Each structure stands twice: as structure tokens, then as C-alpha cells.
Amino acid sequence: MSTLAAAPPRDTATGDPVRLRRALGSFATGVTVVTVGGARPRGMTANSFTSVSLDPALVLLCVGNDAQMNRVLAEADTFAVSVLGAGQEDVARHFADRSRPPGAAQFDAVDWLPGEAGDAPLVAGAAAHFECARWRAYDGGDHTIHLGRVLALDALPGREPLVFHGGRFRRLAPPAEGDRG
Length: 181
Prior knowledge:
Structural class: mainly beta
Protein name: Flavin reductase family protein
Largest sheet: 7 strands, antiparallel
InterPro entries: Flavin_Rdtase-like_dom, NADH-dep_flavin_reductase, Split_barrel_FMN-bd
Pfam family, one: Flavin_Reduct
Oligomer: single chain
Number of helices: 3
Keywords: Oxidoreductase
Domain Flavin reductase like: 24-171
Helix content: 10-25%
CATH topology: Pnp Oxidase, Chain A
């Protein structure tokens, strides 16, 4: 006879943003920089990024309604997502800093290259790049869910991603000796 482990107590206080953030922090995510080009380029660190569909190729990202990037994305035809690699914590912190310079000057502190399918800057050395056309946007409470149709992509094979878990940047553990492909 098997017995089920006792379920953890349910938190009925989901209105507590500190507890909610702590619980959500138990889910490890990748770290990206979302960029838009044009006359006033903009970048923003985001970890709410995921694939949606393979056909058509769609990705999504969630941006706070009060973020300047939310307004910029709503007006842009294209945007890019750079999936940061391990060791790019400084890039993540730079684009998360609300006091960084506006416009093109915010890219002076990082290595970047121009996108080929759109005009959004791509972070150099990233594990992957996705250049996207704006597809749809949806209400997501205090965030907006932006979907993009992938126009172009590239990835650096073997490049370890930057990971965020428990409120800290982390690295993946190397594979165990017997787990190497």
C-alpha cells in the first residue's frame, strides 16, 4: 500500500506580493535582454520569455505595464531577444538598471551587433538570438503578454545559459561524468 506525502499547506494569501515573488522564485528561468531598434533604441532585462508555437514560430515575453519597454514594444514592428550566456550577469544588471542612459547610449556599455532581420541590437556573446515581428499583445494583469513571430535566429552551440533562481544569478552544474552525451 502506498501512502501519499502530505501536501504542503495551501497559501490562501496570494495577495501578498512578497510571498508570491518568493514562491515564483523557486522556478528557475533563463535571462534575456529584449531590444527594440529605430530612432530610440531600448533594451530591458527579462526572464518571462518562452516558446509558444513551432508553426508558426512564435515566442512570448511578459513586460510590466508600467515599464517604458511596454510602450516601446507596442509601437515597434520588430524586436529581438538575446538569451544571455553564463558570465553575462553584468549585461543583465545593466539592462535592469532603470538609471541607465536613454536611447542608443544605453548600448555603449555592452558589446552588441546589429540584427539582420530587424533593426534591434543583439547582445554579443549571447547563447541565442531571436529576431521577431510583433504578432499580438494580450492583457496579463499588471503585465502585457507580447507575442512575436520569429523572423531569424541563431544559437551558439554549447554556450551555457545564464540562469536566475531564488533571486540570484546561477550557473548550471556541469554534467556528471556518466551523463556526458
